[in-house]
Amino acid sequence: AQSVAQPEDQVNVAEGNPLTVKCTYSVSGNPYLFWYVQYPNRGLQFLLKYITGDNLVKGSYGFEAEFNKSQTSFHLKKPSALVSDSALYFCAVSPYGGATNKLIFGTGTLLAVQP
Amino acid sequence: NAGVTQTPKFRVLKTGQSMTLLCAQDMNHEYMYWYRQDPGMGLRLIHYSVGEGTTAKGEVPDGYNVSRLKKQNFLLGLESAAPSQTSVYFCASSYKRTGTSYEQYFGPGTRLTVT
Questions:
Q1: Considering only B18-27, B36-45, B79-88, which range has the smallest mean pLDDT?
Q2: CA B61 remoteness from chain centre
Q3: A97 to A103, B23, B96: CA distances (angstroms)
Q4: Pick from B33, B42, B50: which is nearest to A107 by CB?
Q5: Test mutation, A6, A39, A101, A102, chain B, max B CBs within 10 A
Q6: Average pLDDT, stretch A3-24?
Q7: Which of A46, A90, A103 is most worth mutating to test chain B (most B CB atoms within 10 A of its CB)?
Q8: How high is the pLDDT of residue B99?
């Protein structure tokens, strides 16, 4: 079955420290991978995506993610965390090679950045 | 551009009542989606549409119906609401899969409670 796993329900980090939010996937074929962020009582906002090319992808708000095909991972990273980065982060994969852009989401990781 | 809008923002229904959630987008996107978000389960796809007049089932379609009579609108209907349908509902839209524009754009959500 095709799936996305976010192994940590919550990640705690101090402001100014680097952060990593983990994501692994299980799909057939070449995956299209995405990270979204959700602030309280808001919809999801697109952060970044990997379609093809360079394994290190840069996105909004200073976030980046590294695609690792051998480990089937797409971890989200930021060199220096801000309190305002505190939110719920979702990893998603689009495994369908056709024309629908359907996404499979992970269960989400709550990022808490302490001042 | 307003992006993706959803109506209503909140609703409380009694078991057995019906309602329709409206999603509208002004980005001329071909694809539209309805998701539900439940704690610890991420987002799950209910129904989706790849164009005006076409709809298809997603991961959790039971108890819901949809219609897409106009390209910019995607309606989600609950014919006989059940407490298990208490959730936050998100609509999303995206371009057809061309180039590298695959990401979905989300509305602000509708919080539905069924008592």
A1: B36-45
A2: 11
A3: 12, 26, 13
A4: B42
A5: A101
A6: 97
A7: A103
A8: 55
Distance from CA of B25 to the nearest CA of A (A): 14
Closest CA to B108 of B2, B6, B3: B6
For residues B74-79, average pLDDT: 96
Report how far apart, in Å, the C-alpha atoms of B56 and of each of A92, A100, A115, B79 are.
Answer: 20, 10, 46, 18
Amino acid at B6: Q
For the cut 90, the answer to whether the pLDDT of residue A115 exceeds it is yes
Q: Is A35 on the interface with B (CB under 8 A)?
A: no
Choose the closest CB to A106 out of B42, B92, B104: B42
Using pLDDT thresholds of 50, 70 and 90, give the confidence band for residue A102: confident
